[in-house]
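Researcher: Quick test of sequence recovery. Tokens follow.
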């Protein structure tokens, strides 16, 4: 999957995360994280975002995440939503790919 445009998903409300995704000119995923729980869970949040993007075929992106105590399932859902928006899929999701790693 290729990032074609800037996109964001989520909110800065309590227990949520706002994730923005932009095109990156190098073959790497860069994650900038602002979180109240950075010391305890920062590495885990970054790893979950990176793994989720890689599972749907994104290997190059600039990610900005503002975390307000989101659970892993919320982080994963927001990451998927922003990735599909940034790829310009217009709501056409490959549910088989999404579903396959949860089994």
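Model:
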């Amino acid at each position: 999957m290729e990032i074609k445009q800037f996109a964001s998903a989520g909110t800065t409300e309590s227990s949520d995360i706002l994730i923005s995704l932009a095109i990156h000119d190098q073959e790497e995923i860069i994650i900038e994280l602002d979180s109240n729980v950075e010391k305890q869970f920062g590495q885990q949040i970054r790893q979950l975002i990176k793994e989720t993007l890689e599972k749907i075929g994104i290997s190059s992106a600039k990610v900005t995440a503002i975390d307000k105590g989101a659970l892993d399932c919320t982080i994963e859902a927001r990451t998927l939503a922003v990735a599909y928006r940034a790829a310009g899929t217009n709501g056409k999701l490959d549910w088989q790919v999404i579903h396959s790693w949860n089994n």
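Residues 8 and 20 are 4 Å apart (CA to CA).
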